[in-house]
Amino acid sequence: MPRFTLGNAAPGFAELRSGNLGVRLAATPEEVLAVQALRYRVFYEELGAKADSRTTLSQRDFDDFDAIADHLLVVDHDLGDGPESVVGTYRLIRQMAAMKLGRFYSADEYDISVLERFPGQLLELGRSCTASAYRSRAVLQLLWRGIAAYVFHYGIDLMFGCASFPGTDPDALAAELTYLHSHHLAPAAIRPRALPSRYVDMRRCDPASLDAKKVIMALPPLIKGYLRLGGFVGDGAVIDAQFNTTDIAVVVQTDMVSEKYYRHYERESRETHS
């Protein structure tokens, strides 16, 4: 299993609370192990991802990117204050951290060269999941609050990553994929494109035939969250046979996030340092 450090975590990145729940960065190796165990339960045991022998033996979802990432946690203090409290996670990879491996995770599925040329700080989001009992809008909003605070702390200009639909039959997702391509395609200057060997056309039916409200309701909550922040999608879907998903690229310019959250964190920062 890859070794990991916690040297990337932002000093003074305080936990945000909502009742018994909190969101913060992983602070110990044991918490990262708890994150990997949670991801295994969700991705492999629940959603049917295909585990190799190392993954099965360890009962953890892990890869080389865990070593250079920051791991955002949702913790339930009613369960304790250590690794046992981890009930949700999001993996955050800043540009500086990705340089240690020489690539971003998304580059295995998408040509992200247009993003790498973007004149600002990049953040890759991925490996998001929550324990089954915590899949609520409140928990998702708490994760977004944590991401917004992280974006503000590091001056991130653009976020991107892969978001997933369950299943590997793009025709079963014809309405959703067509809608996203027709209404939320990223501008060319920040539009990732699926690698030629993995490209699946998202235009799978007549856009005029779609009931937009019905399609939006059918989208996974995470994708709807990106769209609410003004996010875009890339060109082409990708079938991820290992994880039993159909992936799309998502891109969010963080001034969209800032519009909703910036004033709060700017005020909080002034109060902390005044």
Fold blueprint:
Elements: E1 16-18, E2 21-25, H1 29-46, H2 53-58, E3 70-76, E4 86-94, H3 95-101, E5 110-111, H4 113-116, E6 122-130, H5 137-154, E7 158-166, H6 174-184, E8 193-194, H7 212-218, H8 221-228, E9 232-233, E10 238-240, E11 245-253, H9 254-273
Parallel strand pairs: 6-7
Antiparallel strand pairs: 1-2, 2-3, 3-4, 4-6, 5-8, 7-11, 9-11, 10-11
Helix pairs in contact: 5-9
Describe the structure.
This protein is an alpha+beta fold and 274 residues long. It has a single domain (16-273), classed as Gcn5-related N-acetyltransferase (GNAT) (Aminopeptidase, 3-Layer(aba) Sandwich). 36% of the residues lie in helices and 22% in strands. The chain has helices at residues 29-46, 53-58, 95-101, 113-116, 137-154, 174-184, 212-218, 221-228, 254-273, and strands at 16-18, 21-25, 70-76, 86-94, 110-111, 122-130, 158-166, 193-194, 232-233, 238-240, 245-253. The strands form 2 sheets. Strands 1, 2, 3, 4, 6, 7, 9, 10 and 11 form a 9-stranded mixed β-sheet that branches. A two-stranded antiparallel sheet has the order 5-8. Helix 5 crosses helix 9 (254-273). The chain is globular.
